[in-house]
């Protein structure tokens, strides 16, 4: 046993650390040190957490929209005033620089703000006199207990894509955060309590596959929102739906930026740096491949390389541009792709291994890396790397670039850089990707639109937040009404027809 602090579960409005439970290490990636342990749920813990959530749901669903909104509004105010604390927690466990941690919180906060308008979002429809003397209306009711299973790379924002709307719509939530950076979830749970959310409506269940499997198969879990890598997303979708759950499972990505010869190459170079190396490339909307339509590649590479030389890599608490990777194992896996690139005949223009950093020697460091002439058969091109490795693929034409992107397995985000409106219009119509930027490298939709990709980047038919998020966390009822008048027609065993 160690004397490190243990991150507990949050069940029924309090911290819960079961006796003799399994735990996993939590690292500070910039120090390279294990600083905490996190509890890992067993099936019995899943049962306790879901029971508590289910009981809370039964009364929360009857709380008026006015009261629910006031709790969410209060949560928003607390979050806004105390987000610095949350950002520090994120940096200490994920490694991203403080500014970036604040950025993810503000994008999550947008969804909280969207959820404050739940009274409008939950509106149903009413049609009068659909048959003589009959009216019909629809209502949107909560689904029940919603489980959210989230990845390490956005410990605050990704859960916030889902839980504000789920809670506002009258559901109870069980959040299973990544075991790599679990503290943000507990911090958020305490904030909900301070905001006046009844105990049990927001539960945090820490754990690994055992917790996930327990949630996917539990009879009282009604909906699953998953975000993570594609193989696990597929597994979650198949297992959850086989157990009768409503599932949305967002998977991995390999995002391309198509650069046309008429583009502003300074804007492109800045964008490639920001979208390729922000958060050390550990973003599902990171740009991983720059597809350069010749003859721009050489000039663009020069501009990108120049800018890479100015980046300060180091501890995210020291005002650096880019932090470490999340674990040593992930750092080594990402660095391994540089060897693959060399073996496959690509040109490593900038090698991020052995970079000088403003941080402790033991941190999980890998500097920004640029690889040119990446063969599209190479694993560097076909696999999601999820680190600060930017590939350049050279193509001869717009059409070749579009075909390349459309032939990829993923369809999360993409961008085109051009000053030609016609080309941009064709790109957005023809490209088979869910989120598209035109001269915008990280086109994450605002909260009132929905976030999600195509193909291997999303399993299920519903994206996160916006109108699709509201639909995911609600069930519809259609109610046909007739108030008796003296003309009611007596017995008729035929199928009801409108007249
Ligand atoms: P991951 O798939 O390893 O883990 C995601 C969640 O699944 C975690 O909560 C984890 O505990 C759980 N999990 C891990 N292995 C499991 C197993 N065998 N069975 C059941 N559950 C399991 O993903 P990650 O490394 O935490 O996050 C990075 C991945 O998430 C990348 O692939 C990235 O593209 C993806 N991501 C996608 C989006 C999106 O919107 N599409 C957003 C953020 C991250």
Secondary structure: elements and pairs:
Layout: E1 6-7, E2 9-11, E3 14-16, E4 22-28, E5 33-40, H1 43-60, H2 65-94, H3 98-115, H4 118-121, E6 126-131, E7 134-142, E8 145-149, H5 157-168, E9 172-176, H6 183-195, E10 202-204, H7 209-217, E11 223-227, H8 230-242, E12 246-250, E13 255-259, H9 265-277, E14 287-293, H10 297-308, H11 328-343, E15 347-350, E16 369-372, H12 379-382, E17 389-395, H13 398-406, E18 410-411, E19 413-417, H14 421-430, E20 435-438, E21 454-455, E22 458-459, H15 466-472, E23 474-482
Parallel strand pairs: 1-5, 8-9, 8-11, 9-10, 11-12, 13-14, 13-19, 14-17, 16-17, 19-20
Antiparallel strand pairs: 2-3, 4-5, 6-7, 7-23, 12-22, 15-16, 18-21
The structure holds nicotinamide-adenine-dinucleotide.
Nicotinamide-adenine-dinucleotide binds next to helix 7.
Summed over residues and divided by their number, the pLDDT gives a mean of: 97
Please identify, by name, the CATH architecture of the largest domain: 3-Layer(aba) Sandwich
Strand order across the largest sheet = 15-16-17-14-13-19-20
Task: Tell me roughly what share of residues is in helical segments.
Answer: 25-40%
Q: What is the level 1 CATH name of the largest domain?
A: Alpha Beta
Query: Beta-strand percentage?
Result: 15-25%
Overall 3D shape:
globular
- Based on CA atoms alone, the radius of gyration comes out at 25 Å
The structure class reads alpha/beta
Uncertain spans, ≥5 residues at pLDDT below 50?
none
CATH superfamily of the largest domain: Aldehyde Dehydrogenase, Chain A, domain 1
| Strand tally | 23
Count of the separate structural domains: 2
Q: State the major sheet.
A: 7 strands, mixed
In whole angstroms, the N-to-C terminal distance is: 75 Å
Q: How many helices?
A: 15
According to CATH, the fold-level topology of the largest domain is: Aldehyde Dehydrogenase, Chain A, domain 1
**Which small-molecule ligands are present, each listed once?**
nicotinamide-adenine-dinucleotide
């Amino acid at each position: 046993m160690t004397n490190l602090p243990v991150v507990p579960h949050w069940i029924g409005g309090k911290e819960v650390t079961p006796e003799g439970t399994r735990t996993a290490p939590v690292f500070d990636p910039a120090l390279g040190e294990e600083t905490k342990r996190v509890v890992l749920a067993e099936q019995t813990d899943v049962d306790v957490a879901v029971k508590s959530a289910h009981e809370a749901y039964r009364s929360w669903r009857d709380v008026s929209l006015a009261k629910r909104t006031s709790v969410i509004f209060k949560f928003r105010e607390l979050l806004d005033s105390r987000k610095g604390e949350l950002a520090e927690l994120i940096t200490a466990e994920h490694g991203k620089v403080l500014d970036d941690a604040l950025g993810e919180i503000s994008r999550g906060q947008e969804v909280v703000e969207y959820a404050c308008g739940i009274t409008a979002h939950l509106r149903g429809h009413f049609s009068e006199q659909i048959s003589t003397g009959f009216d019909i209306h629809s209502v949107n009711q909560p689904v029940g207990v919603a489980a959210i299973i989230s990845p390490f790379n956005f410990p605050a924002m990704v859960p916030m894509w889902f839980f504000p709307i789920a809670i506002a719509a009258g559901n109870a939530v069980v959040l299973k955060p990544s075991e790599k950076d679990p503290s943000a979830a507990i911090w958020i749970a305490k904030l909900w309590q301070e905001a006046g959310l009844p105990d049990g409506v927001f539960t945090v269940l820490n754990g690994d596959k055992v917790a996930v499997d327990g949630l996917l198969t539990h009879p009282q879990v009604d909906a699953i929102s998953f975000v993570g890598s594609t193989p696990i997303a597929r597994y979650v979708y198949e297992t959850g739906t086989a157990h009768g759950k409503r599932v949305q499972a967002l998977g991995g990505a390999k995002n391309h930026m198509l650069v046309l010869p008429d583009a502003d190459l300074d804007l492109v170079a800045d964008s490639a740096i920001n979208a390729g190396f922000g958060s050390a490339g550990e973003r599902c909307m990171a740009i991983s491949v720059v597809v350069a339509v010749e003859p721009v590649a050489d000039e663009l590479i020069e501009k990108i390389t120049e800018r890479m030389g100015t980046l300060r890599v180091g501890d995210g608490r020291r005002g650096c541009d880019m932090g470490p990777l999340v674990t040593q194992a992930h750092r080594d896996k990402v660095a391994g792709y540089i060897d693959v690139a060399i073996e496959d005949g690509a040109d490593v223009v900038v090698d991020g291994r052995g970079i000088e950093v403003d941080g402790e020697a033991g941190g999980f460091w890998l500097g920004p890396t640029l690889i040119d002439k990446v063969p599209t058969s190479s694993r560097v091109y076909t696999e999601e790397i999820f680190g600060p490795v930017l590939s350049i693929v050279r193509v001869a034409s717009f059409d070749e670039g579009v075909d390349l992107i459309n032939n990829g397995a993923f369809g999360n985000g993409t961008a085109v850089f051009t000053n030609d409106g016609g080309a941009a219009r064709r790109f957005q119509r023809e490209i088979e990707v869910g989120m598209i930027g035109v001269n915008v490298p990280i086109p994450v939709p605002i909260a009132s639109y929905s976030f999600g990709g195509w193909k291997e980047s999303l399993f299920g038919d519903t994206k996160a937040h916006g109108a699709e998020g509201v639909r995911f966390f609600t069930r519809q009822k259609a109610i046909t009404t007739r108030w008796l008048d003296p003309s009611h027609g007596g017995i008729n065993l035929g199928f009801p027809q409108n007249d």
